[in-house]
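Human: Respectfully, please carefully check these C-alpha cells:
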Amino acid sequence: MRILVLDSIHGGKVIAEHLSSRGHETDLIDVYRHADGISPETAKTRTYDLIAAPVHLDPDFPLLREIKAPIVTHHAVVRWLLNEALSNFSTPSARPSIPKPSGPVIEITGKQGKTTTAAALSFLMPGPGLLHSSAGVIRYEAGEMAGKIPGKVPGKEPGKILERYSITPASLLSVCTKHHTGGWLISEVSLGFCGIGTLGILTSFLDYPVANGKKSALAFKTGQSHLVKTVLVPPGGKLPHDGCIDVSDLVYVSGRTAHYQCGDIKGEFTNPLLLLPGYKTPLMLAAGAALLLGTDPAGLSGFSALPGRMEVTEDGQYTVVDNSNSGTCLDTTLDAFRYSKEIAGDKPVTLVIGQESASVCENFSTGEIISSISGTSPKDVILVLGDERIMKEEIIRYCANNGVLLTLADSAGEGLQKARSLENPLIILSVKRWK
C-alpha cells in the first residue's frame, strides 16, 4: 500500500519507518517546519491508499481535503502495528517483528496525573516489566518489586532511565521494539488510548482545545475508551462504556488513609501524600488498577513524592520540599506549604519562588507569586527572575510592606543555595521550570 504519514515531529517519522519496514510505500510530511520528508506540493501529485494523521492536526489542513484517501489516526496505526492486526496493511508474509508484552498492558491518558499514576502503579508491580512515562523508560527484572528494588539493567545503574521518549502514540513502537523483553508494560499516551491495553486509566476529566482550537482533547480520550475492555476513571467520572469503573467504587480516602476492597482483597494504606490533591487521585487510581490486576495496593504506604512534585529531602539542617516543575502555580505552592507543615511541623520557611525561563508557555504570573507569598507567610523569599513577564518591583514592594525579606536569584539552583545560607529550617522550592 502507499501511505502518507503526516507530522514527522510528533511520532510520524517513527510510524513511517515501521510501515516502510513492512514493505509499504510510505511518504512523510513535516506539517510544521517542512524540514523532513516530501513537500505538500509533491504529495498532491501522488495517489495514496491511506493517510495517517495525528488527532491534534488542524482538521482544515489542506491535504486532508485535497487528497482523496481514507484517514486514520496515529493511535490507530500504532494499535494495528502492535496488535499485528495488519490485514488491511500487508500480506501474511509481511508480519511485524515488534515484541509484544507477555503480561498486563496498562495505558494511561488524561490532562493531569499521568506520570504520578504510572509511577505509583509501577511501584506495586512485580517484575519483569517496563515503565514508560514522560519521566523516561525504566525496566524491572524478574522477581523485583519496583517500589522496593529498582530495575537492574546490565551495564547501567539500578533504576537508571534507559531512554526518554515523548508520550505520543508512536513512542510505544520505539519502547516495545528497543526495550521490551516481556512482562508487564505501563505507558502514558497523549490524547487518548491506542487500544492495546489490558486496562486503560483516564486520570482526569479536565479538557482543553486541540487541533488549532477546533476540537476537544477530552472528546478524543473518552471517544477512544471503547478500545480498551476496562477503563478506570477518577471519582465521580462516567464514560459511555460498559467497562468503565469509577475508582471510588474500589478505593475511598479519609485524611491520609486510603481504604480499599475488590473481591477478596481488602485493606488500607496510609500516606501523607493523600492530603495533596495532586497525589490523592493518582494514588487512588494506582490502587484501583492494582486491585483490578489482582495485586494488593498496601505497598503504596511507602510511595514517596516524585522529583519536582513535592519530593522531600533532608539536607543537613534543612527540610526541602521540591515543587518545581512546568506546572508550578499558586495552587501547587499552597499545597507544598500545607504538606511541608504536615511533615515538618510549624517551622520558619524560606520560599524560593518564580520562573527560570520564558520557555514555559503559561508563566507564573506576578499576581500568583504575590498570592503565594501571602498564603504561605514565609520569613524569607528568594525570587527567581528568569522570565521578564514577572514584575519584580511589585513583588519587592509587597514583601517590603509585609515585613518579608526578599533576595533575587537567577535560577532555582542558585535560589536553593541562597536558602541554605539562611537559618530557616524549612525550604519550599516552587519555581516554574522544565523538569
About this structure: The domain at 2-94 is CATH 3.40.50 (Rossmann fold). The two ends are 42 Å apart (CA to CA). DSSP finds twelve helices and 22 strands in the chain.
